Amino acid sequence: MELKIGTSLMLEEINGEGKYYCKVVEEGAGYIYIDYPIHQATKKSAFLLMHTRLKAYFVEGDGVTYHFLTEVVGRIKKEIPMIQLHYKGKESLVKHQRREYVRVDATLPAALHSLNGTFEPFTTITKNISASGALLAVKEKGVFFQKGDKINVWLVFELYDQYYHIQTEAEVINILPSHVEKQHNVGVKFLTLGVKEQEALIRYTLEVQRELKRKGLL
Length: 218
Description:
This protein is mainly β. It has two domains: about 10-95, Electron Transport, Fmn-binding Protein, Chain A (Pnp Oxidase, Chain A, Roll), CATH 2.30.110; about 105-215, Thrombin, subunit H (Beta Barrel). Helix content is about 10%, strand content about 50%. It is built from one helix and 15 strands. The longest helix is centred in the last third of the chain and has 20 residues, at about 195-215. The relative contact order is 0.13.
């Protein structure tokens, strides 16, 4: 695969805590050029110092995540001010297998809908989540899922003061007992998650993981 103009990147400082978003606006031999990145926390344009070392993440159209290591090597003044990053090409890309998606404990509101009308829509919460699936707490109110069942799942979560509403078809992959009376946990795999939605979930889970590490809980 190739890194293309228009690709959204998530940048993470290797020797710092800064995290940013930007887009690839031009390409060159051994380099890519990005627009001025937006700091995740402040939502303001960021000024990256020369030789700042970064890890850059992006999601390909098939939903697979890649990253590569890079460094700020220049600034270009054109109609759109740009930052020049070192880029060795596709041989420098590291592919993340789906099993490598970060899974974090998170209590997010969710709504479940039947695809064929076998049960009434109801709301619940997640127990954990990743960019490929979730574990849902389901009370035993006449709704009994089986492995292989297909359902629609709606999720809501907040990331950097912005709310994301995600809808995807999902497949039940396991049903686990719960310590809560009259409740079981249903594991689902997301089937129709869009690239932007998956990218948002990746950012969310990475941010939750970082916060847990900062607090010494991981």
